[in-house]
Specification:
four-stranded mixed β-sheet, about 30% helix, about 15% strand
Length: about 270
Amino acid sequence: MSTYVFGDIQGCFNELQTLLDDVQYDATSDKLWFVGDLINRGGKNLETLAFIMDQKNSVVVLGNHDLHFLACATGNKRPTRKDTFSDVLDSPDLPGIVDWLRCKPLIHHDPDLGYTMVHAGLPPHWSIDLCLQRSAEVERCLQGDDYDSFFQHMYGNDPNCWSETLSGMARLRMITNYFTRMRFTTAEGELELTYKTTECPDGYSPWFKFFPTSISTTVLFGHWAALEGITGNASIIALDTGCIWGRDLTALRLEDRQFFTTPAQA
């Protein structure tokens, strides 16, 4: 039995299947973990979701594209011209897909394996236990009856710094931005959300630079394709290698830390 963790799929279903063939995936015993952004920008979103939903041993955390899709699917946001998930929106299976995604967490922590998976990153000023507590606040809202209100107020870059006095949607938006959109931050957790390459804004650093070189868990994340899988810290593993941008789809086998890649298909 092996556990394979995949970087952002974003509707690149053919590449996902190629990589599964390469690792000789056994659906009866192997486990699949996904760092979020299952869909959007690629062309086979419905096939991607149908396959992952059909896997009994899959673990998924939500990414910013997944949340955006949910906001559109529930009528709380209009799709943009760049969105490519109309195949899912038009599917008769849409209600079941929405319910399935709404029940997914922002963080998956496996203390036995020693790994923590999140889409964008972990605030460096929060412990793992605190991250799990804060993510649970958002998850309760997503899975509750008031999820429409969450999606209506989810978008935005403010507040950009954590405070224990934050409440309501401002608090939930801050938590969501940490886990699904973060790239650059300060040691105190102040976010800069407009820079998307590796160019570092003044006064900020990549969030993982504030973690010690040896931490109690290995963090697995996606979201930041511009890193090309490089963090400089063996305990912080970047898995989004830009398949949707014409580069590679990457998976990591946790048991021996072997990487597998397949190039984007034309």
